[in-house]
Structure formats: structure tokens, C-alpha cells
Amino acid sequence: MHGEAPKQILAKTKGRGRRNLAFLLILLAVGGALYYVFSGAPKPQQRSRFGAEGGPVPVLSAAAAKADVPVYLDAVGTIKALNTVTVSPQVDGKLISVNFKEGDDVKKGDVLARIDPATYQAQLDQAKAKKAQDEAQLANAKLDLDRYEKLAATNAINRQQADTQRALVAQDTALVQADQAAIESAQATLGYTTIVAPIDGRTGIRQVDEGNIVHAASSPAIVVITQVKPISVIFNLPQQDLGQVNDAFAKGPLQADALRPDNNAVIDHGTLRVVDNQVDQTTGTVKLKAEFPNAGVLLWPGQFVNVRLLIDTLKDVVTIPTGAVQRGPNGTFVYVIKDDNTASMRPIVVQKQDETQTVVKSGVAVGERVVTTGFVRLTDGSKVAIGSADGAPAAPAQGNRQRGQRSGGRQNPQQ
């Protein structure tokens, strides 16, 4: 039994070796299949997209141009009526008529409502009658004074009587003046029964209906009038921009534009009127106010609106599409297309940039073409095939001419 043990051990060892060899052969077969799938020739879709191996890279391009570029500061503002007046009754009485419609445009002096004037007309008539009475007494006192002065001059009466009469004339004169003041007060009170528009503007919703008793102290307002033409916009800018704004504002009026929520169109053009005299310490912003003519009444009090403030214009600067600007470890760069349709990587210095346009301070000259689309396979020195912006191949004789030379390579508009 002990003699057979080594033979059994040797048989088991050979069996495990055969199984390991079979497993290794299976792994090699699977690896070969994966290698064929992932490293084989490009698929037809890949060849149609990128072109034959070693062919030019399809790109789109644009020429650097010289232009005047405005410099804006953007903010979100709140529209505020230039003037807002709450029209309230100034005397007590019955509201006998309402002479406006809600939402009407009214002019300064237009009659809005009337309060029953009977009581106040009676007070005015009473004041006038009191004045007439006192004027009669004054006239009689003056006649007596004239007689007393003549008698006193001949010593026919005591001089004191003439002085007393002179004081009585002065007293009656003061009474007449007080009566005149009472008449003017009554006239003013009577005038308050006719309620007129104090400013040009647009009426809101009526607060009191005809027939109600109104009171000067406790009644609600009759209507609120807001001046919407012109109108103002209040907006905030960071305190870091305050220096630029003040420098530009010192040179002359600054243009402000009110934009639609999508920023695709200007609603109205206005002018900056004032920069607030202090910075809000809680937000680090400064408040500004611009005025807009609002001729079309497209701006409404209380509405939020996008605002851009023009503080400068860069004259005759080189501009390229923002899509052409690339960023790498060494900074910003673009691919410039040379005369032989070769892409050359070139570092640039960006002066100003927005979503669509970039101002290049240095690195690109006017007229040079830069790549705007097709950077996936593009490297420094790559041959390129320039396509048209609409996706159709450019004409080989005219579409990609650079300084009198035709571009080389097959046209392919795909990116």
C-alpha cells in the first residue's frame, strides 16, 4: 500500500497540469478575440466621420476682424415709477362723482372726483358776509376819525377822543384783514372738494366708490397715480466696479439698456442719473438709478429687468469668436490656419471676452483665420480641411482662399 502512494500522487499532479494548460489556452483565445474587436480596422462610421487615416482634419474657421467693442456692466434692476402719488380726500363729505376710469392716463389738473361742496360753499359765503359787515364798520370809523381830527385841531374837543377813534379805525382794519384770510381759507377748503390729478401718470384701481362718505383723516385713498413716462430703474453693482463707473460718469452721461429676460433684445434705452452716495455694507454693492423714456410703456413699476451699463468702448481692436479660444497649461491659445492649410498653435493675450466675442490684445492679426470648430483631432501642424458654417463643403476654388492661395486637402464640413 505504501508502494502505490507515489504513483497516485504523480497521476493527480499530471491531471492538474492538463487542467491548468486548458484554462490558459481559453484565456489566450478570449484575449485574442478582444484584441481583434478593439484594435481592428476603423468601422465604416468612423472612416466616414474622420476621413481616411492621415487625411486633413475637418474644421470650421473665422477671420480675425477689427471692430469697436462696447464694454458693459450687467445687473438686475427693479423698475420704479419716477413719481407715485396717493390721491386722498382733504375734506370730509359725500363723494358725488368719480371722473376717471381705472387704468386711464391722466394729465396734471384733470378732475378725478368731486365731494359735495354745499357745506363749504356756505362757509365761504359766511366769511364774505362777515367781511362786508366789518368793512362797513371800518368806513364809519374812518368818517368819525376825520371829524374828530378837524374838531381837535380847533380845540373843540379833547385830543384824546381823536386818538381813541384812530385806534378804533386800526382795530376795524385788522378785522377786515382777518375776514379776508377767512375767505381765502374757505375758498381753499371749497377747492378741495374738487379732486384733481397732481401729476401726469396712470391711474390704478379705484379704492372708493361714488356715494361713499369720505373723511380727510381716516378714509382710504381714492386712487394711486404712477408716472410711467418716463420711468426709472434701480440696480446694484459690486463696489469693485464703482471706480470704473465714476470715471466714466465724470466724462459724460452713461447709456443704460433695459433688456428682455433672455437678453436677446433691448426693451428701451435710458441714461444713468445718479450713483448713490454710499456703499451698502451688508452686500458690498452700490445703488444706481437710470431713467428711461418708456414711450411704449413696456417697463412697468415693480418689474424686474436685466440692465447693462455702457462704461467704455474699445476702439479698433482685434476680435475673434469666443469658440476659437482654447485653454491649456500655458494659458490661452488659438489654432491659426496658415496659407498651406496647416493649423499652427499660437498663444494669445485676451483683453476682454463674453459669450460670443473675444478681444485679442496680442497674438492674432487682422485677417488671419482661426479654427472655431473641430478641435478633437487637431494638433499643432495638422493639415485641415475648412468647411462652411452651414455644414456644406466649401467650394475648392474660392471657399478657403488665404492671401490668393487655394486651400489644400479634401473638403469635409464635419467636425
Describe it.
- It is a single chain.
- Among the domains are: about 1-40; about 70-80 and about 230-315, Beta Barrel (Elongation Factor Tu (Ef-tu), domain 3), CATH 2.40.30.170; about 90-225, Beta Barrel (OB fold (Dihydrolipoamide Acetyltransferase, E2P)).
- β13 and β14 (about 285-290) form a beta hairpin.
- It has helices at about 5-40, 45-50, 120-155, 160-190, 240-250, and strands at about 55-65, 65-80, 85, 95-100, 105, 110-115, 195, 200-205, 215, 225, 230-240, 255-260, 265-280, 285-290, 305-320, 325-330, 330-335, 345, 350-355, 355-360, 370-375, 385.
- It is built from five helices and 22 strands.
- The longest helix is centred in the N-terminal third of the chain and has 36 residues, at about 120-155.
- Helices cover about 30% and strands about 35% of the residues.
- The model is unreliable at about 1-5, about 40-50 and about 390-415 (pLDDT under 50).
Task: Give the gist of this structure.
This protein is an alpha+beta fold. The protein contains five helices and 22 strands.
The arrangement of helices and strands along the chain is: HHEEEEEEHHEEEEEHEEEEEEEEEEE
At the fourth level of CATH, the homologous superfamily of the domain at 91-225 is RNA polymerase II/Efflux pump adaptor protein, barrel-sandwich hybrid domain
Report the C-alpha radius of gyration, rounded.
46 Å
Uncertain parts: 1-6, 40-52, 390-415
Question: The CATH topology of the domain at 91-225 is what?
Answer: OB fold (Dihydrolipoamide Acetyltransferase, E2P)
Question: What's the CATH architecture name of the domain at 91-225?
Answer: Beta Barrel
Largest beta-sheet details: 6 strands, mixed
Globally, the shape reads elongated
Helix content: 25-40%
Distance between the termini: 80 Å
What is the CATH domain class of the domain at 91-225? Mainly Beta
Number of helices: 5
Average pLDDT level: 84
Structural class: alpha+beta
In percent, how much strand structure appears in the residues? Answer: 25-35%
Q: Write down how many β-strands occur, each being a DSSP E stretch of 2 or more residues.
A: 22
